[in-house]
Amino acid sequence: MFADFANIWxxxxxxxxxxxxxxxxxxxxxxxxxxxRDAAGKACALIDRCPHRGVTLSLGRVVKGELECPFHGWRFxxxxxxxxxxxxxxxxxxxxxxCALPVREIAGLLWLHTxxxxxxxxxxxxxxxxPDIALCAQSVVWNAHWTRVMxxxxxxxxxxxxxxxxxxxxxxxxxxxxxxxxxDLEERPYGAHMTNRxxxxxxxxxxxxxxxxxxxxxxxxxxxxxxxxxxxxxxxEGATRLLLLTIRNFARSTLLDPVxxxxxxxxxxEDRRIVESSSPGEVPPPGEEKSVRTxxxxxxxxxxxRETLRGSSARRPDGVDRLPA
Length: 325
Description:
By secondary structure, this protein is of the alpha+beta class. The chain is about 15% helix and about 30% strand. α2 runs antiparallel to α6.
């Protein structure tokens, strides 16, 4: 299960997007997952498949904090325990449970663990934990493998070409004349921190890679905080959901959220057609594409992906490794 993306934490959406009494369906790394809130308001997640006849649980309803299957009315709590089998009071419900997944709500986000026994909780950016911030979000699905999307988010040299009218405007004036870009990459416990220099002169801003699938771009105005954060969440081999976050400590009114969503959406849209054209879909092994010095961050990501995620899978507690698609 969760092939090539197993046993890690990933954000899924804003916590407020998971409303009481309403199931939320997502597809993550080839697996259908349903989120809902129990009677106490706690976020829960189950594999989105009824163990009875395999139907999609997210088509059902939440009743008193339990998820009811739309087919025969079986009910499950947030731990996957079977809480009722209509017409069968003698059913051995302890053997008729659904498959639960670990969920956390931290810093206004809903996080899912793509496994069953996390050793620790999510490693959350300190930006999301800062006081007095406004957080707005949007999501979009690209027709691309998540590794191509993720490495695009870590690629600095493309900015003056793809984003010449937005975040790459300053760099676009410096491309000509044989100038040299140097990217300084510093490993951190969460991944890596990157800055760049042009002809030895440091450029404003910084980029952070947060394992396994988050990019944080710092574009802080003087004395203020403004970050663009993107989580690249694989739906399957050919589709990636981007969770686009804008975090700021100024202009915090929600009335301004559409403005920041427009900005973040425009920047992501500039990348989309380029990334979706990539071939092959998944980032290839070393040596199959030509690279240069300024590709160091994306090459580092490729190494991390192949060493820690590619080939990974989660084994269900009941021993079932893979569910029907």
